[in-house]
Specification:
Keywords: Cytoplasm, Hydrolase, Protease, Thiol protease
Largest sheet: 6 strands, mixed
Pfam families: Peptidase_C15
Number of strands: 8
Strand order of the largest sheet: 2-1-3-8-4-7
Distance between the termini: 7 Å
Number of helices: 5
Mean pLDDT: 93
CATH class: Alpha Beta
CATH topology: Aminopeptidase
Protein name: Pyrrolidone-carboxylate peptidase
Family: Belongs to the peptidase C15 family.
CATH architecture: 3-Layer(aba) Sandwich
Amino acid sequence: MAAGPRVLVTGFEPFPGAPVNPTEWLIRSLTEEPPLDHLAHVEAFRAVVLPVDYAAVGPRLSELGREFAPDIAIHFGLADECSGFRLERLARNRFAADRPDNSGALRDAGRVCAGPDTLESGLPLHAIHDRLAEMNLPVEWSDDAGGYLCNTVFMLSRAKACDGFAPAMSGFVHVPLTGAKPGCAMTPEELRAGALAILDLSCREWRRLHSL
């Protein structure tokens, strides 16, 4: 049997306006307890927190491409206004110009990289939506991942615009704040369970496409 996929999961560090980022917790959880028993036929797995820094995030993806060469890249980010797992259907090739990153830098409004105006997610989103709904986890659709670092990473990943970073399958999922406080749509445990379902279905789809 051919080797299974190499799987990368990313989240982000806290950023201005979000002193706590649940995707940072998710990455720590997946690093401390890698889900290899949950994911059959995976060659390698890595979970990484990305910097909220326009100048650094592209080079970091390139570094990950050279070091790890993922076949699947699933990117998670925080959108505190969403009510559950927000499945992003489209990466948009544009920056917003009104939000500084963690270094204080602003990007001029313009294109993220060479390529088309939009690119579709490569994840099996309909299967993911149905599985999360079956698990009684909140899930919603989106065609706009925003103009901040989340959309930037989504576009760079789908366009294979970072030297050495060229996953065959990639996509982006926004999540809400987690915890027991008012305004939190999910618990951390639900976040991890949903993320594992997304990983499982993405790996199954990769194996189907590669007849493993």
